[in-house]
Amino acid sequence: MPALRNAVSCLARIGYAERRIRERLGLADLTEIRWRALPIYRAEKLADRDPLASAIDLFLLQGAIPLAELNGLFAKAELDVLIQIGLIYLDERGLARAAVSLYPVGDRLIFSDHAWPSLPHPGCVNVPRDQVMSVGTDSRWLARATVRRPVGAALDLCTGSGIHALLAAAHARRVLAVDLNPRAAQCTRFNGLASGATNLEVRVGDLYKPVGEERFDLITANPPFVPSPRNLLQYRDGGRSGEEVQRRLIAGLPQHLAPGGRAQIVTEFGERGDEPLADRLREWLGGAAMDIHILRLRENSAANYAIGHADGADTYAAFLDSVHDWAGNLKTQGYTRIVSVLLAFEWSDTAAGRPWTRTENPQSLHVNAGNEVEAAFANERLVRQPNFPELLERGRVCRAGPIALLEARVLGRNVRANAQAELLGKALPILQTLDAVEREILVRLEQPATLSELEALAKEPPLEKAAVMAALGSLIRRGLVLLKPSD
Ligand SMILES: C[S@@+](CC[C@H](N)C(=O)[O-])C[C@H]1O[C@@H](n2cnc3c(N)ncnc32)[C@H](O)[C@@H]1O
Protein backbone atom coordinates (compact mmCIF):
# COMPACT_ATOMS: atom_id res chain seq x y z
CA MET A 1 0.00 0.00 0.00
CA PRO A 2 2.74 2.59 0.73
CA ALA A 3 4.11 2.07 -2.80
CA LEU A 4 0.62 2.42 -4.27
CA ARG A 5 0.01 5.62 -2.30
CA ASN A 6 3.40 6.93 -3.45
CA ALA A 7 2.47 6.16 -7.05
CA VAL A 8 -0.79 8.11 -6.68
CA SER A 9 1.14 10.99 -5.06
CA CYS A 10 3.59 10.98 -8.01
CA LEU A 11 0.66 11.46 -10.38
CA ALA A 12 -0.74 14.26 -8.23
CA ARG A 13 2.68 15.97 -8.28
CA ILE A 14 2.82 16.06 -12.09
CA GLY A 15 -0.60 17.78 -12.14
CA TYR A 16 -2.86 14.76 -12.65
CA ALA A 17 -5.98 16.46 -11.21
CA GLU A 18 -9.36 17.45 -12.63
CA ARG A 19 -8.65 21.09 -13.55
CA ARG A 20 -5.25 20.50 -15.16
CA ILE A 21 -6.52 17.52 -17.16
CA ARG A 22 -9.62 19.36 -18.32
CA GLU A 23 -7.51 22.31 -19.45
CA ARG A 24 -4.98 20.04 -21.15
CA LEU A 25 -7.72 18.27 -23.12
CA GLY A 26 -9.36 21.60 -23.98
CA LEU A 27 -12.66 20.66 -22.33
CA ALA A 28 -15.03 22.97 -20.47
CA ASP A 29 -15.83 20.04 -18.15
CA LEU A 30 -14.43 16.49 -17.88
CA THR A 31 -18.01 15.24 -18.36
CA GLU A 32 -17.57 16.25 -22.03
CA ILE A 33 -14.86 13.66 -22.68
CA ARG A 34 -15.89 11.40 -25.60
CA TRP A 35 -14.38 8.14 -26.84
CA ARG A 36 -15.01 9.21 -30.42
CA ALA A 37 -12.60 12.09 -29.86
CA LEU A 38 -9.73 10.01 -28.38
CA PRO A 39 -7.53 10.25 -31.51
CA ILE A 40 -8.06 14.02 -31.59
CA TYR A 41 -7.10 14.48 -27.94
CA ARG A 42 -3.96 12.43 -28.59
CA ALA A 43 -2.96 14.18 -31.79
CA GLU A 44 -3.86 17.72 -30.80
CA LYS A 45 -3.60 17.93 -27.02
CA LEU A 46 -1.13 15.24 -25.99
CA ALA A 47 1.37 15.39 -28.86
CA ASP A 48 3.90 17.02 -26.54
CA ARG A 49 4.72 13.95 -24.42
CA ASP A 50 5.45 15.41 -21.03
CA PRO A 51 4.62 13.21 -17.97
CA LEU A 52 1.10 14.68 -17.67
CA ALA A 53 0.34 13.73 -21.29
CA SER A 54 1.60 10.16 -20.69
CA ALA A 55 -0.46 9.84 -17.49
CA ILE A 56 -3.65 11.14 -19.14
CA ASP A 57 -3.17 8.77 -22.07
CA LEU A 58 -2.50 5.77 -19.80
CA PHE A 59 -5.00 6.33 -16.98
CA LEU A 60 -7.87 8.20 -18.60
CA LEU A 61 -7.85 7.62 -22.36
CA GLN A 62 -7.14 3.87 -22.10
CA GLY A 63 -4.05 4.35 -24.27
CA ALA A 64 -0.84 2.33 -24.63
CA ILE A 65 2.39 4.17 -23.88
CA PRO A 66 6.07 3.25 -24.49
CA LEU A 67 8.08 1.96 -21.53
CA ALA A 68 10.30 5.04 -21.63
CA GLU A 69 7.25 7.20 -20.88
CA LEU A 70 6.10 4.84 -18.13
CA ASN A 71 9.53 5.00 -16.51
CA GLY A 72 9.24 8.78 -16.49
CA LEU A 73 6.08 8.59 -14.39
CA PHE A 74 7.12 6.40 -11.45
CA ALA A 75 10.20 5.31 -9.52
CA LYS A 76 11.19 1.66 -10.00
CA ALA A 77 9.87 0.47 -6.61
CA GLU A 78 6.43 1.92 -7.32
CA LEU A 79 6.35 0.65 -10.87
CA ASP A 80 7.25 -2.87 -9.73
CA VAL A 81 4.27 -2.81 -7.36
CA LEU A 82 1.87 -1.46 -9.99
CA ILE A 83 2.93 -4.27 -12.34
CA GLN A 84 2.91 -6.90 -9.59
CA ILE A 85 -0.70 -6.13 -8.59
CA GLY A 86 -1.72 -6.15 -12.26
CA LEU A 87 -2.65 -2.47 -12.42
CA ILE A 88 -0.21 -1.99 -15.29
CA TYR A 89 0.67 -4.64 -17.86
CA LEU A 90 2.53 -4.86 -21.12
CA ASP A 91 0.49 -5.60 -24.25
CA GLU A 92 1.56 -7.79 -27.18
CA ARG A 93 3.53 -4.86 -28.68
CA GLY A 94 5.43 -4.29 -25.43
CA LEU A 95 3.51 -1.10 -24.73
CA ALA A 96 2.26 -0.30 -21.22
CA ARG A 97 -1.48 -0.29 -20.54
CA ALA A 98 -3.51 0.27 -17.39
CA ALA A 99 -5.98 -2.45 -16.35
CA VAL A 100 -8.24 0.18 -14.79
CA SER A 101 -8.67 3.92 -15.15
CA LEU A 102 -7.82 6.59 -12.60
CA TYR A 103 -10.47 9.31 -12.54
CA PRO A 104 -9.64 12.78 -11.23
CA VAL A 105 -12.46 14.26 -9.12
CA GLY A 106 -11.28 17.67 -7.98
CA ASP A 107 -7.89 16.87 -6.49
CA ARG A 108 -8.95 13.31 -5.50
CA LEU A 109 -8.13 10.28 -7.65
CA ILE A 110 -10.54 7.33 -7.92
CA PHE A 111 -9.71 3.96 -9.49
CA SER A 112 -12.48 2.17 -11.37
CA ASP A 113 -13.06 0.03 -14.42
CA HIS A 114 -12.51 1.67 -17.80
CA ALA A 115 -15.12 4.09 -19.11
CA TRP A 116 -15.11 2.38 -22.54
CA PRO A 117 -14.55 -1.29 -21.69
CA SER A 118 -15.47 -2.44 -25.15
CA LEU A 119 -12.86 -0.35 -26.96
CA PRO A 120 -11.86 -0.68 -29.79
CA HIS A 121 -15.53 -1.37 -30.51
CA PRO A 122 -17.50 0.77 -28.10
CA GLY A 123 -21.23 0.47 -28.47
CA CYS A 124 -21.16 -3.34 -28.49
CA VAL A 125 -22.60 -4.78 -25.30
CA ASN A 126 -19.80 -7.13 -24.40
CA VAL A 127 -19.29 -5.47 -21.06
CA PRO A 128 -19.32 -7.89 -18.11
CA ARG A 129 -22.48 -7.60 -15.99
CA ASP A 130 -20.39 -6.89 -12.89
CA GLN A 131 -18.45 -4.04 -14.50
CA VAL A 132 -17.72 -1.34 -11.89
CA MET A 133 -19.06 1.96 -13.12
CA SER A 134 -16.58 4.56 -14.27
CA VAL A 135 -16.80 8.07 -12.85
CA GLY A 136 -19.51 9.37 -15.14
CA THR A 137 -21.41 12.62 -15.52
CA ASP A 138 -23.97 11.51 -12.92
CA SER A 139 -21.18 10.57 -10.47
CA ARG A 140 -19.62 14.03 -10.88
CA TRP A 141 -22.96 15.80 -10.49
CA LEU A 142 -23.64 14.08 -7.17
CA ALA A 143 -20.07 14.70 -6.00
CA ARG A 144 -20.49 18.41 -6.80
CA ALA A 145 -23.96 18.79 -5.26
CA THR A 146 -23.27 17.01 -1.97
CA VAL A 147 -23.19 19.37 1.01
CA ARG A 148 -19.67 19.12 2.47
CA ARG A 149 -20.25 19.82 6.17
CA PRO A 150 -18.78 17.78 9.03
CA VAL A 151 -21.22 14.94 9.80
CA GLY A 152 -21.25 11.93 12.11
CA ALA A 153 -22.23 8.80 10.18
CA ALA A 154 -22.51 8.73 6.38
CA LEU A 155 -23.94 5.97 4.19
CA ASP A 156 -23.19 5.64 0.48
CA LEU A 157 -25.56 3.20 -1.21
CA CYS A 158 -24.78 1.75 -4.65
CA THR A 159 -21.22 2.85 -4.05
CA GLY A 160 -19.58 1.40 -7.21
CA SER A 161 -16.03 2.76 -7.28
CA GLY A 162 -16.77 4.30 -3.87
CA ILE A 163 -16.45 7.86 -5.15
CA HIS A 164 -19.11 9.35 -2.84
CA ALA A 165 -18.01 7.28 0.15
CA LEU A 166 -14.41 8.44 -0.34
CA LEU A 167 -15.41 12.08 -0.65
CA ALA A 168 -17.64 11.75 2.44
CA ALA A 169 -14.75 10.17 4.37
CA ALA A 170 -13.09 13.60 4.39
CA HIS A 171 -15.96 15.22 6.35
CA ALA A 172 -17.74 12.34 8.12
CA ARG A 173 -16.63 10.63 11.31
CA ARG A 174 -17.48 7.26 9.81
CA VAL A 175 -18.62 6.11 6.35
CA LEU A 176 -20.40 2.91 5.39
CA ALA A 177 -20.38 2.01 1.67
CA VAL A 178 -22.72 -0.66 0.27
CA ASP A 179 -22.93 -2.34 -3.12
CA LEU A 180 -24.59 -5.49 -4.40
CA ASN A 181 -21.66 -6.19 -6.69
CA PRO A 182 -18.69 -7.76 -4.84
CA ARG A 183 -16.32 -6.39 -7.51
CA ALA A 184 -17.57 -2.86 -6.76
CA ALA A 185 -17.07 -3.44 -3.03
CA GLN A 186 -13.50 -4.61 -3.77
CA CYS A 187 -12.91 -1.51 -5.87
CA THR A 188 -14.17 0.76 -3.07
CA ARG A 189 -11.95 -1.04 -0.52
CA PHE A 190 -9.00 -0.65 -2.88
CA ASN A 191 -9.71 3.08 -3.28
CA GLY A 192 -10.02 3.40 0.48
CA LEU A 193 -6.60 1.81 0.98
CA ALA A 194 -5.00 3.79 -1.85
CA SER A 195 -6.26 7.07 -0.38
CA GLY A 196 -5.49 6.16 3.24
CA ALA A 197 -9.12 6.55 4.42
CA THR A 198 -9.29 4.85 7.83
CA ASN A 199 -12.96 5.66 8.58
CA LEU A 200 -14.46 3.74 5.66
CA GLU A 201 -16.24 0.38 5.94
CA VAL A 202 -17.53 -1.52 2.89
CA ARG A 203 -20.32 -4.13 2.90
CA VAL A 204 -21.79 -6.22 0.09
CA GLY A 205 -25.56 -6.42 -0.15
CA ASP A 206 -28.89 -5.17 -1.39
CA LEU A 207 -29.48 -1.49 -0.47
CA TYR A 208 -30.22 -1.15 3.27
CA LYS A 209 -30.04 -4.90 4.06
CA PRO A 210 -26.42 -4.80 5.30
CA VAL A 211 -27.17 -1.67 7.34
CA GLY A 212 -29.63 -3.00 9.90
CA GLU A 213 -31.58 -0.38 11.85
CA GLU A 214 -28.87 2.27 11.77
CA ARG A 215 -29.66 5.91 10.89
CA PHE A 216 -27.24 8.26 9.13
CA ASP A 217 -26.59 12.01 9.04
CA LEU A 218 -25.72 11.86 5.35
CA ILE A 219 -26.98 9.36 2.79
CA THR A 220 -25.69 9.54 -0.78
CA ALA A 221 -26.70 7.28 -3.67
CA ASN A 222 -26.45 6.94 -7.41
CA PRO A 223 -28.62 3.85 -8.01
CA PRO A 224 -29.01 2.06 -11.35
CA PHE A 225 -31.84 3.93 -13.07
CA VAL A 226 -31.94 3.17 -16.77
CA PRO A 227 -35.33 1.87 -18.02
CA SER A 228 -33.88 -0.95 -20.01
CA PRO A 229 -35.55 -3.58 -22.20
CA ARG A 230 -33.00 -6.12 -20.98
CA ASN A 231 -31.25 -6.21 -17.61
CA LEU A 232 -27.68 -6.41 -18.85
CA LEU A 233 -25.59 -4.18 -16.63
CA GLN A 234 -25.94 -4.22 -12.87
CA TYR A 235 -24.61 -0.68 -12.50
CA ARG A 236 -26.94 0.75 -15.14
CA ASP A 237 -30.24 -1.05 -15.54
CA GLY A 238 -33.15 -0.42 -13.20
CA GLY A 239 -35.53 -2.93 -14.78
CA ARG A 240 -37.99 -2.11 -17.54
CA SER A 241 -39.36 0.88 -15.60
CA GLY A 242 -35.93 2.03 -14.42
CA GLU A 243 -37.41 2.24 -10.92
CA GLU A 244 -36.63 -1.17 -9.42
CA VAL A 245 -33.78 0.02 -7.20
CA GLN A 246 -34.55 3.75 -6.90
CA ARG A 247 -38.09 3.10 -5.59
CA ARG A 248 -36.81 0.91 -2.72
CA LEU A 249 -33.95 3.33 -2.07
CA ILE A 250 -36.30 6.29 -1.58
CA ALA A 251 -38.86 4.21 0.31
CA GLY A 252 -36.12 3.28 2.82
CA LEU A 253 -35.01 6.86 3.58
CA PRO A 254 -37.50 7.46 6.44
CA GLN A 255 -36.11 4.40 8.29
CA HIS A 256 -32.45 5.40 7.81
CA LEU A 257 -32.13 9.18 7.75
CA ALA A 258 -31.25 10.58 11.19
CA PRO A 259 -33.10 13.65 12.51
CA GLY A 260 -31.38 16.70 11.00
CA GLY A 261 -29.77 14.49 8.35
CA ARG A 262 -29.73 14.91 4.59
CA ALA A 263 -30.01 12.41 1.71
CA GLN A 264 -28.69 13.31 -1.73
CA ILE A 265 -29.41 11.18 -4.78
CA VAL A 266 -28.58 11.52 -8.46
CA THR A 267 -30.84 9.62 -10.82
CA GLU A 268 -33.06 9.69 -13.90
CA PHE A 269 -36.81 9.30 -14.20
CA GLY A 270 -39.08 8.53 -17.09
CA GLU A 271 -41.87 11.10 -17.13
CA ARG A 272 -45.40 10.70 -18.41
CA GLY A 273 -47.15 13.81 -19.72
CA ASP A 274 -47.69 16.36 -16.94
CA GLU A 275 -47.55 13.92 -14.02
CA PRO A 276 -45.48 15.76 -11.34
CA LEU A 277 -42.37 13.91 -10.32
CA ALA A 278 -42.94 15.01 -6.73
CA ASP A 279 -46.11 12.86 -6.52
CA ARG A 280 -44.10 9.73 -7.29
CA LEU A 281 -41.44 10.60 -4.70
CA ARG A 282 -44.08 11.36 -2.04
CA GLU A 283 -45.82 8.05 -2.75
CA TRP A 284 -42.54 6.14 -2.34
CA LEU A 285 -41.81 8.03 0.89
CA GLY A 286 -45.10 6.63 2.19
CA GLY A 287 -46.26 9.90 3.76
CA ALA A 288 -43.01 10.56 5.67
CA ALA A 289 -42.72 14.28 6.48
CA MET A 290 -39.71 15.16 4.36
CA ASP A 291 -38.85 18.30 2.42
CA ILE A 292 -37.64 17.59 -1.10
CA HIS A 293 -35.39 19.69 -3.31
CA ILE A 294 -35.29 18.68 -6.99
CA LEU A 295 -32.72 19.97 -9.47
CA ARG A 296 -33.68 19.08 -13.03
CA LEU A 297 -30.38 18.98 -14.87
CA ARG A 298 -31.09 17.48 -18.28
CA GLU A 299 -34.04 16.29 -20.29
CA ASN A 300 -34.09 13.87 -23.21
CA SER A 301 -36.98 12.90 -25.42
CA ALA A 302 -37.80 9.19 -25.29
CA ALA A 303 -36.65 8.89 -28.93
CA ASN A 304 -33.22 10.43 -28.27
CA TYR A 305 -32.82 8.31 -25.15
CA ALA A 306 -33.58 5.13 -27.09
CA ILE A 307 -31.09 6.01 -29.82
CA GLY A 308 -28.42 6.95 -27.26
CA HIS A 309 -28.73 3.62 -25.44
CA ALA A 310 -29.16 1.31 -28.41
CA ASP A 311 -26.37 -1.20 -28.93
CA GLY A 312 -25.68 -3.77 -31.61
CA ALA A 313 -23.03 -1.72 -33.40
CA ASP A 314 -21.98 -4.82 -35.41
CA THR A 315 -24.47 -4.10 -38.15
CA TYR A 316 -26.84 -1.27 -38.91
CA ALA A 317 -29.77 -3.71 -38.88
CA ALA A 318 -28.85 -4.88 -35.37
CA PHE A 319 -28.62 -1.27 -34.24
CA LEU A 320 -32.07 -0.51 -35.64
CA ASP A 321 -33.50 -3.56 -33.84
CA SER A 322 -32.00 -2.33 -30.62
CA VAL A 323 -33.42 1.20 -31.08
CA HIS A 324 -36.78 -0.46 -31.64
CA ASP A 325 -36.44 -2.47 -28.39
CA TRP A 326 -35.46 0.56 -26.31
CA ALA A 327 -38.10 2.85 -27.82
CA GLY A 328 -40.76 0.13 -27.45
CA ASN A 329 -39.96 -0.33 -23.76
CA LEU A 330 -40.13 3.43 -23.06
CA LYS A 331 -43.46 3.58 -24.86
CA THR A 332 -44.84 0.64 -22.87
CA GLN A 333 -43.86 2.48 -19.68
CA GLY A 334 -45.68 5.56 -20.97
CA TYR A 335 -42.49 7.66 -20.79
CA THR A 336 -42.37 10.61 -23.16
CA ARG A 337 -39.11 12.00 -21.82
CA ILE A 338 -36.33 11.09 -19.40
CA VAL A 339 -35.11 13.65 -16.92
CA SER A 340 -31.80 13.64 -15.01
CA VAL A 341 -32.25 14.95 -11.49
CA LEU A 342 -30.40 15.62 -8.27
CA LEU A 343 -32.65 15.07 -5.27
CA ALA A 344 -32.09 16.23 -1.71
CA PHE A 345 -34.29 15.08 1.20
CA GLU A 346 -34.41 16.42 4.75
CA TRP A 347 -36.83 15.85 7.59
CA SER A 348 -39.40 18.60 7.56
CA ASP A 349 -40.00 21.03 10.42
CA THR A 350 -43.68 20.16 10.78
CA ALA A 351 -44.21 23.07 13.21
CA ALA A 352 -43.57 25.38 10.21
CA GLY A 353 -46.25 23.78 8.05
CA ARG A 354 -46.62 20.94 5.58
CA PRO A 355 -43.53 19.35 3.97
CA TRP A 356 -42.59 21.16 0.77
CA THR A 357 -41.13 20.22 -2.58
CA ARG A 358 -39.09 22.72 -4.56
CA THR A 359 -38.07 22.16 -8.17
CA GLU A 360 -35.41 24.17 -10.03
CA ASN A 361 -33.88 23.99 -13.49
CA PRO A 362 -30.19 24.94 -13.35
CA GLN A 363 -28.49 25.45 -16.68
CA SER A 364 -25.33 23.61 -15.65
CA LEU A 365 -23.39 22.15 -12.74
CA HIS A 366 -19.67 22.52 -13.37
CA VAL A 367 -18.38 23.28 -9.89
CA ASN A 368 -19.24 22.42 -6.29
CA ALA A 369 -22.76 23.46 -5.43
CA GLY A 370 -23.26 21.97 -1.95
CA ASN A 371 -23.52 25.41 -0.34
CA GLU A 372 -26.25 26.39 -2.78
CA VAL A 373 -28.26 23.23 -2.12
CA GLU A 374 -27.98 23.93 1.60
CA ALA A 375 -28.99 27.58 1.08
CA ALA A 376 -32.09 26.47 -0.88
CA PHE A 377 -33.31 24.57 2.21
CA ALA A 378 -32.44 27.47 4.53
CA ASN A 379 -34.21 30.08 2.34
CA GLU A 380 -37.29 27.92 1.87
CA ARG A 381 -37.53 27.40 5.64
CA LEU A 382 -36.98 31.05 6.45
CA VAL A 383 -39.94 32.26 4.40
CA ARG A 384 -42.15 29.48 5.77
CA GLN A 385 -41.52 30.45 9.40
CA PRO A 386 -44.74 31.67 10.99
CA ASN A 387 -42.92 34.85 12.15
CA PHE A 388 -41.42 35.61 8.71
CA PRO A 389 -43.55 38.81 8.30
CA GLU A 390 -42.16 40.12 11.61
CA LEU A 391 -38.59 39.25 10.60
CA LEU A 392 -39.18 41.15 7.38
CA GLU A 393 -40.56 44.17 9.24
CA ARG A 394 -37.55 44.21 11.58
CA GLY A 395 -34.77 43.46 9.06
CA ARG A 396 -33.15 44.93 5.97
CA VAL A 397 -33.15 43.36 2.52
CA CYS A 398 -30.50 43.56 -0.18
CA ARG A 399 -29.72 41.91 -3.49
CA ALA A 400 -27.87 38.65 -2.94
CA GLY A 401 -25.15 39.69 -5.43
CA PRO A 402 -24.83 40.89 -9.01
CA ILE A 403 -27.95 39.95 -10.92
CA ALA A 404 -28.52 39.75 -14.68
CA LEU A 405 -32.01 40.98 -15.53
CA LEU A 406 -33.41 39.77 -18.82
CA GLU A 407 -36.43 41.46 -20.26
CA ALA A 408 -38.27 40.69 -23.46
CA ARG A 409 -40.45 43.17 -25.33
CA VAL A 410 -43.36 41.83 -27.25
CA LEU A 411 -43.73 44.06 -30.27
CA GLY A 412 -47.08 44.71 -31.90
CA ARG A 413 -49.25 43.52 -29.00
CA ASN A 414 -50.21 45.18 -25.78
CA VAL A 415 -48.68 42.45 -23.60
CA ARG A 416 -45.82 42.55 -21.21
CA ALA A 417 -43.45 39.57 -21.17
CA ASN A 418 -42.23 38.35 -17.80
CA ALA A 419 -38.74 39.43 -16.83
CA GLN A 420 -36.16 36.84 -15.78
CA ALA A 421 -33.28 37.22 -13.36
CA GLU A 422 -30.13 35.22 -12.74
CA LEU A 423 -27.83 35.64 -9.78
CA LEU A 424 -24.36 35.67 -11.35
CA GLY A 425 -21.35 33.60 -10.28
CA LYS A 426 -23.37 30.67 -8.96
CA ALA A 427 -22.56 26.97 -9.26
CA LEU A 428 -26.22 26.43 -10.09
CA PRO A 429 -27.08 29.16 -12.62
CA ILE A 430 -30.88 29.38 -12.56
CA LEU A 431 -33.04 31.72 -14.62
CA GLN A 432 -35.87 32.82 -12.32
CA THR A 433 -39.06 34.25 -13.76
CA LEU A 434 -40.18 37.48 -12.07
CA ASP A 435 -43.62 39.04 -11.82
CA ALA A 436 -43.96 42.83 -12.12
CA VAL A 437 -43.55 43.57 -8.40
CA GLU A 438 -40.58 41.25 -7.99
CA ARG A 439 -38.91 42.95 -10.95
CA GLU A 440 -39.57 46.43 -9.52
CA ILE A 441 -38.13 45.47 -6.16
CA LEU A 442 -34.96 44.02 -7.69
CA VAL A 443 -34.47 47.13 -9.81
CA ARG A 444 -35.13 49.58 -6.97
CA LEU A 445 -33.04 47.75 -4.40
CA GLU A 446 -29.80 49.65 -5.10
CA GLN A 447 -28.92 49.83 -1.39
CA PRO A 448 -29.92 47.57 1.52
CA ALA A 449 -33.34 48.78 2.64
CA THR A 450 -35.98 48.21 5.27
CA LEU A 451 -39.48 47.32 4.20
CA SER A 452 -40.75 50.88 4.63
CA GLU A 453 -37.72 52.35 2.84
CA LEU A 454 -38.39 50.00 -0.02
CA GLU A 455 -42.02 51.10 -0.25
CA ALA A 456 -40.90 54.75 -0.20
CA LEU A 457 -38.13 54.23 -2.78
CA ALA A 458 -40.39 55.20 -5.64
CA LYS A 459 -43.99 56.21 -5.70
CA GLU A 460 -44.70 55.56 -9.37
CA PRO A 461 -46.00 52.96 -9.68
CA PRO A 462 -46.75 52.72 -5.94
CA LEU A 463 -45.93 49.37 -4.37
CA GLU A 464 -48.53 47.99 -1.97
CA LYS A 465 -47.11 46.68 1.30
CA ALA A 466 -48.78 43.28 1.04
CA ALA A 467 -47.55 42.86 -2.55
CA VAL A 468 -44.03 43.93 -1.53
CA MET A 469 -44.01 41.42 1.31
CA ALA A 470 -45.20 38.61 -0.93
CA ALA A 471 -42.67 39.50 -3.61
CA LEU A 472 -39.84 39.72 -1.07
CA GLY A 473 -40.81 36.30 0.25
CA SER A 474 -40.58 34.90 -3.25
CA LEU A 475 -37.22 36.62 -3.96
CA ILE A 476 -35.72 35.52 -0.63
CA ARG A 477 -36.97 31.99 -1.14
CA ARG A 478 -35.22 31.86 -4.50
CA GLY A 479 -31.99 33.34 -3.17
CA LEU A 480 -32.11 36.57 -5.22
CA VAL A 481 -32.57 38.74 -2.14
CA LEU A 482 -31.07 38.36 1.33
CA LEU A 483 -32.78 39.26 4.59
CA LYS A 484 -30.44 40.61 7.26
CA PRO A 485 -31.31 41.61 10.80
CA SER A 486 -31.34 45.40 11.19
CA ASP A 487 -28.36 46.74 13.14
C1 LIG B 1 -24.97 3.96 -11.29
S1 LIG B 1 -23.79 2.99 -10.41
C2 LIG B 1 -23.15 4.21 -9.28
C3 LIG B 1 -21.72 3.99 -8.87
C4 LIG B 1 -21.11 5.14 -8.06
N1 LIG B 1 -21.85 5.36 -6.83
C5 LIG B 1 -21.04 6.40 -8.87
O1 LIG B 1 -21.77 7.35 -8.57
O2 LIG B 1 -20.22 6.45 -9.81
C6 LIG B 1 -24.89 1.99 -9.46
C7 LIG B 1 -24.25 1.02 -8.50
O3 LIG B 1 -25.31 0.38 -7.77
C8 LIG B 1 -24.98 -0.98 -7.55
N2 LIG B 1 -26.24 -1.69 -7.28
C9 LIG B 1 -27.16 -2.14 -8.17
N3 LIG B 1 -28.22 -2.67 -7.52
C10 LIG B 1 -27.95 -2.55 -6.19
C11 LIG B 1 -28.66 -2.92 -5.01
N4 LIG B 1 -29.85 -3.50 -5.09
N5 LIG B 1 -28.09 -2.67 -3.82
C12 LIG B 1 -26.88 -2.09 -3.74
N6 LIG B 1 -26.16 -1.71 -4.83
C13 LIG B 1 -26.70 -1.94 -6.04
C14 LIG B 1 -24.27 -1.38 -8.82
O4 LIG B 1 -23.49 -2.52 -8.62
C15 LIG B 1 -23.46 -0.11 -9.11
O5 LIG B 1 -22.21 -0.20 -8.49
Explain this structure to me?
There is one protein chain. With 487 residues, this protein is of the alpha/beta class. The chain folds into 3 domains: 2-98, no CATH class; 137-347, Vaccinia Virus protein VP39 (Rossmann fold); 383-485, Outer Surface Protein A, domain 3 (Alpha-Beta Complex), CATH 3.90.930. 36% of the residues lie in helices and 22% in strands. The chain is built from 19 helices and 17 strands. The strands form 5 sheets. Strands 7-6-5-8-9-11-10-12 form an 8-stranded mixed β-sheet, with helices on both faces. A 3-stranded antiparallel β-sheet has the order 14-15-16. Strand 5, helix 8 and strand 6 (172-179) form a beta-alpha-beta unit. Helix 13 crosses helix 14 (316-333) and helix 15 (370-384) packs antiparallel against helix 19 (465-477). The chain is globular and about 80 Å long. The N and C termini lie far apart (56 Å). The relative contact order is 0.08. The model has no long low-confidence stretch (mean pLDDT 93). Bound molecules: S-adenosylmethionine (SAM). S-adenosylmethionine binds at residues 133, 135, 139, 142, 157-161, 163-164, 178-181, 184, 206-207, 222-224, 234-235, 245.
Main traits of this protein?
single chain; 487 residues; alpha/beta; Rossmann fold; Outer Surface Protein A, domain 3; 19 helices; 22% strand; globular; binds S-adenosylmethionine
CATH architecture of the largest domain: 3-Layer(aba) Sandwich
- What's the gyration radius in Å? 25 Å
Q: Sheet bearing the most strands, described? A: 8 strands, mixed
Bound small molecules, by name, code or SMILES, are: S-adenosylmethionine
CATH class of the largest domain: Alpha Beta
The total beta strand count reads 17
Look at the structure and give the mean pLDDT: 93
Q: Helix count, per DSSP?
A: 19
The SS-based structural class is: alpha/beta
CATH topology type of the largest domain: Rossmann fold
Global outline: globular
Give the CATH superfamily of the largest domain. Vaccinia Virus protein VP39
Low-pLDDT runs: none
Q: What is the percent of helical residues?
A: 25-40%
Read across the widest sheet, the strand sequence of neighbours is 7-6-5-8-9-11-10-12
Name the beta content range. 15-25%
User: In total, how many domains does the architecture comprise?
Assistant: 3
Terminal CA distance reads 56 Å
